[in-house]
Amino acid sequence: xxxxxxxxxxxxxxxxxxxxxxxxxxxxxxxxxxxxxxxxxxxxxxxxxxxxxxxxxxxxxxxxxxxxxxxxxxxxxxxxxxxxxxxxxxxxxxxxxxxxxxxxxxxxxxxxxxxxxxxxxxxxxxxxxxxxxxxxxxxxxxxxxxxxxxxxxxxxxxxxxxxxxxxxxxxxxxxxxxxxxxxxxxxxxxxxxxxxxxxxxxxxxxxxxxxxxxxxxxxxxxxxxxxxxxxxxxxxxxxxxxxxxxxxxxxxxxxxxxxxxxxxxxxxxxxxxxx
Length: 275
Description:
It contains nine helices and ten strands.
């Protein structure tokens, strides 16, 4: 195991964010005046105004007597309507970061807000509700029910949310039409191509009108031509106002986004707006 990944003392939140007593500007309410001016905080209570806000996020795993820091004090915001790619090599921490964004895991240290909700301090039941209401997942392997039709696969999040049969049927149909599968609603996954199965997965992710569309290596199981078609679909969905986060190790896929965060050794190596 690399010595760089072994236990090290974590910095304070102030040090991680580059803030000291000499440099911080605080208003009468105890809030950072510069952050208020940038719009990073809501003036009434200090809750971040960004759709996603991560502050000093650490994720540490116990490995016997050692500690492995998968993430080391990561901080960034994602505004509503952004199209972001998170890229990094194997072992960089990008998958850990994706799990935290998707509320599939919780940080060892730091604070994480989605839509002004402090999810880093939520219990499992609350996190499950956030996953259902705020996040639409798109996986590399599609994760479709083999014996269910495309329509029923898309309806599943609505069933979990307690939506009535008539309403979820209508919403699932609308979601499938949005990904150009209006003529494949009664087909099962084995009757669909890889690209069509991924479109069903995207329709399922969209059906609950989530705040975030979170895609993990969405083209990893597809050929080059189909990958381009899926990325064109993401661009279309972004142009319609959806917030999209794609996690990938492929630079050409990341280049389709409008902003790219590069992760290496658990740190943000770069954060660039490219469009």
